[in-house]
Amino acid sequence: MKTAIVTDSNSGITQSQAKELGVYVVPMPVLIDGEQYFEDISLTQDQFYEKLKADAQVSTSQPSAYDVGEMWTDLLKDYDNIVYIPMSSALSETCNTLAHLANTQFSGKVFVVDNKRISITMRQSVIDALNMVKDGKSAEEIVEFLTATGDKSSIYIMVDTLKYLKKGGRITPAVAAIGTLLKIKPVLQIHGGKLDQFAKVRKIADAKTTMINAIRHDLDTQFSDLRAAGKMTLAVAHTQNPEEAEIFKNEIISAFPDIEFTFTECLSLSIACHTGPGTLAVATTVKY
Predict the structure, then answer these.
(1) Which residues of 155-177 are buried (b: 16+ CB within 10 A; e: fewer)?
(2) With 0-12 CB in 10 A as exposed, 13-18 as middle and 19+ as buried, what is 283?
(3) Do the beta carbons of residue 130 and residue 23 sit within 8 Å?
(4) pLDDT, tens digit, for every residue of 261-284?
(5) pLDDT tens, 130-186?
(6) Could you count the other beta carbons within 10 Å of the beta carbon of residue 43?
(7) Which residue in 24, 50, 111, 189 has the fewest CB atoms around it within 10 Å?
(8) What is the DSSP string of 228-261?
(9) Cα–Cα distance between 220 and 228 in angstroms, integer?
(10) 243: left (phi over 0), alpha (psi -120 to 50) or beta
(11) DSSP annotation of 203
(12) Which three-class secondary structure string do you get for 130-152?
């Protein structure tokens, strides 16, 4: 049986990277002042941030179920089945919409996995699925693994400015005004697909220390057995902050020499539209 691995651009995997990896990436729609663009097709990262900084009305949307269905149909000419890995159902209805499409029109051929991931943790899911295909695992076995390990990851994100959290309705204007006055940099957490506030700091150095300590706590508690088995990974992400991300990467590697560091990538635009530029993030994720 020949299995195709398909994801969307919320994984942070670009179209060119997809070709190198041998996967397929659905570009996520991005709405800017009412006009629709597609991530990494008609909208680059730099163009996105230019619009964001210019105070354009920016939001992300679901991909067209029709377009995704057409993609699946084309792929099934060359593959026996498809494992589709979208962003967490806790962050978007995309997963549920496409699961319904798969179950009704592509039953037994397309398997939509809700493994509660986004961005760099979702990217690891794609890598795991690819490695399972190489090991001869069936689509059902891949789905079983990704579903069972969906909650075995954590992301911590430092936000450089409260401006975009306010614009997205994540915090009130009053809280944003006070936070800006006090130069607060919130640290957010994504675990199990939900974006929540984790801590408040005032300096980048404090934010990085907070995130490293949070990751250490997770690795020492809920992921301790997986860490001991050599099954946990680490990754760094950022939004227009490559220099600081490289420094942070080295700090992470120094703090956790026993754990594989996998990659440094840009945060997906679905998160970036809420956090803005200048963010830093670290994730720990189980691997196949």
Answers:
(1) bbbbbbbbbbbbbeebbeeeebe
(2) buried
(3) yes
(4) 999 999 888 888 888 899 999 999
(5) 999 999 999 999 999 999 999 999 999 998 876 766 555 444 443 333 344 446 688
(6) 21
(7) 50
(8) HTT-EEEEEEESS-HHHHHHHHHHHHHH-TTSEE
(9) 10
(10) alpha
(11) S
(12) HHHHHCCCCHHHHHHHHHHCCCC
Question: What is the reported pTM?
Answer: 0.90
Starting at the earlier edge strand, list the strands of the sheet with 24-26. Answer: 24-26, 3-8, 81-85, 110-112
Alpha helices in 149-222 (DSSP H): 163-167, 173-181, 204-220
Residue whose structure tokens are 């679905």: 270
Taking Cα atoms as reference points, which of 158, 162, 152 lies closest to residue 267? 158
What tokens does 162 get?
């409260």
What is the C-alpha to C-alpha distance for residues 57 and 63, in angstroms, rounded to an integer?
19
The closest alpha carbon to 9, from 97, 114, 119, 91, belongs to 119
**Token pair listed for 16:** 């060119």
Contact between 271 and 107 under an 8 Å Cβ cutoff? The reply is: no
